[in-house]
Amino acid sequence: MTDRDRPGNQASLALLETLAARFSEDPLVESGTMFRSPGMKVGGKIFAFLGGGDRLIVKIPRHRAEAIIAAGEAEPVTMGTRTMKEWVAYPAVPDEPQETEQRWSRAVDEAYAYVKSLGSE
Description:
Blueprint: H1 10-21, E1 29-34, E2 37-42, E3 45-51, E4 55-59, H2 62-70, E5 75-79, E6 82-91, H3 97-118
Antiparallel strand pairs: 1-2, 2-3, 3-4, 4-6, 5-6
């Protein structure tokens, strides 16, 4: 298993737990394991999880994903050989925990709002 495949270091895991705690009042949000990694669901649908290489992976609208990737703010997510159109990965910023927290916080909020808006399909 390479570093890119590992589900994050202790700092990333702690940050994800802090971000998840912000949704503790929403009964539709649950934390757990997604794709063998810690993450969050709303209404039974995954909206964020910790990917390999200390990356926060979130689901957002396709047009936003394309714009964020084009701007270099996040990376595309590939599962197997398929690039996921509504998923982006935000790498942790080395030696900048506050910057990582700000980026991940915005990303989690956007993903939560988007996936919650989808309702149950």
